[in-house]
Amino acid sequence: MQFESFAEAHSFLLLSSFIVALIMGAVVNKTNFCTMGAISDMVNMGSYSRFKSWLLAIAVALISITVFEYFELISLNSSFPPYRGSTIIFGENIIGGIIFGVGMTFASGCGNKTLIRLGAGNLKSLVVLIVLSITAYFMTNPFPNSDQTLYSTLFYDWIRVLSISVEGSSDIASLISSEHSKTARLILGLMISFGLFIHVFKNSEFRTNKNNIVAGLVVGLAVTAGWWITSNTQIETDDEQYSLSGYYQEWDMLEDDDQLKPAQARTLESQSLTFINPVGQILGYVQSKFDSALLTFGLVSVFGIILGSMLMALVTKRLSLEWFSTVQDFVHHFVGAIMMGVGGVLALGCTIGQGITGLSTLALGSFITFAAIVFGSTLTMKAKYYRLIYDDAGLYAAIISSLVDLHLAPEVMRKLEAVD
């Protein structure tokens, strides 16, 4: 997709990403696609149907991106965020993923679900969104009258030790065969995606659930569309072709003024749907009094998800206001929002950003984060259930007993009698 000016190309990027998010928001609202809900169904009801919808979305995105990249139709190596960076930040992936998983459980949903619920009139999600935005913003931006961020204050001095530098990309295929990474990505991507397709559709319960199939397909295709749009929006000028980020680097040579220049180059790199960092961008956008230079793919995607959900809620007459039932309910959502902001930025993504978009790149860090989020959420749900059943149960006893249930601690350590 070639344009004659940066303004045209950038406008196309923002509009098309908004439309993709709008469609996804409407479909997710209609089908009740929810990653935290999928984990809850597994833990509390033994139902894997919604989790398989999540796996289907991963499979659709993975097979699409694998094929597109092999034929050089998209570019992922310099993505935003850098999923395939030359450093495997496994400490941040694990710790951030667990924190995010715990947080989304307390906040009743991940970043995407928060936007979906807000669009449908849930005022609890508005509070979560505000707190999440502030937390995510200050994870990467200095506090007022300071040069310190939340990340530098809490993590910088120690967590980067928990990382490994590699030569080249940190996706699994490159780690297996750096010399033949292109072919290795194709083979590995096809193997994993076909395996997921077989696993998902061999289940008769899933095959008969239209909503879960539609949700998985649409979310996977939305992630694919994001990668395609951001990789293929180009400017042709003076017989030269530039990507948006490439044009930005040559701005002083190609443009007479900075009137239309975006605030940052990295937000013009290849990318797809993720919601924690973009939600953090809301605060900066508001503080700037809605400066158009701060409009990004991620930010307009956030607005698209909310509006898409709202439109579907209006069409289906499911728009309804909801507020906190108790003070404890408010505290849980407030704390959960903070944890999602911290964990999501630390791990470079959420259940969509790392759990689908990142996994479509075969980045090792995305697999680590995905497992950490599922673990954090599962452990929290089990611990909360133990404390609900046993009124006098302490947090330590509930956590240890939950770890035993997950076969991560020996039976001899059990503090509370197992519950079904």
> How many β-strand stretches?
5
The major pleated sheet works out as: 3 strands, mixed
- Tally of individual domains: 1
Uncertain runs: none
- Which geometry do the CA atoms define? globular
Cα-atom Rg, whole angstroms? 21 Å
Strand-residue proportion: under 5%
Tally of helical segments: 20
* Widest beta sheet: strand line-up: 1-4-5
Question: Which structural class do you get from the secondary structure elements?
Answer: mainly alpha
User: Mean pLDDT, rounded to whole units?
Assistant: 95
Order of helices and strands: EHHHEHHHHHEHHHHEEHHHHHHHH
Helical fraction equals 55-70%
Distance between the termini: 55 Å
Any overview of this molecule?
The chain has 420 residues and is mainly alpha-helical. The protein has one domain. It has 20 helices and five strands. It has helices at 6-31, 35-45, 49-70, 90-106, 111-119, 123-140, 150-154, 156-159, 172-176, 181-201, 204-207, 210-232, 244-249, 251-254, 276-287, 297-315, 327-346, 353-358, 364-389, 395-405; strands at residues 2-3, 87-88, 164-165, 234-237, 240-243. The strands form two sheets. It has a three-stranded mixed β-sheet with strand order 1-4-5. A two-stranded antiparallel ribbon has the order 2-3. Helix 4 (90-106) runs antiparallel to helix 17 (327-346). It is globular and about 75 Å long. The model has no long low-confidence stretch (mean pLDDT 95).
